[in-house]
Specification:
By secondary structure, the protein is an all-alpha fold. It contains 2 helices and no strands. Helix 1 packs antiparallel against helix 2. The mean pLDDT is 91.
Length: 52
């Protein structure tokens, strides 16, 4: 496995955990706020892998 595949796999796992945090924080504004920013941060870090 090369480094690019390992990095993408790691970020996909972060995305899955962000979705889990969002589901667990339903009904709590501040937890949802933080979870959504975590998800957006993960997506921002993945952008360079899809647009060279």
């Amino acid at each position: 496995m090369n480094n690019k595949i390992i990095n993408i796999t790691g970020w996909v796992l972060f995305l899955i955990s962000a979705i889990g945090f969002i589901m667990s924080s339903l009904g709590n504004f501040w937890a949802m706020f933080g979870s959504l920013f975590f998800l957006v941060g993960c997506v921002v870090f993945l952008i360079p892998y899809f647009f060279d």
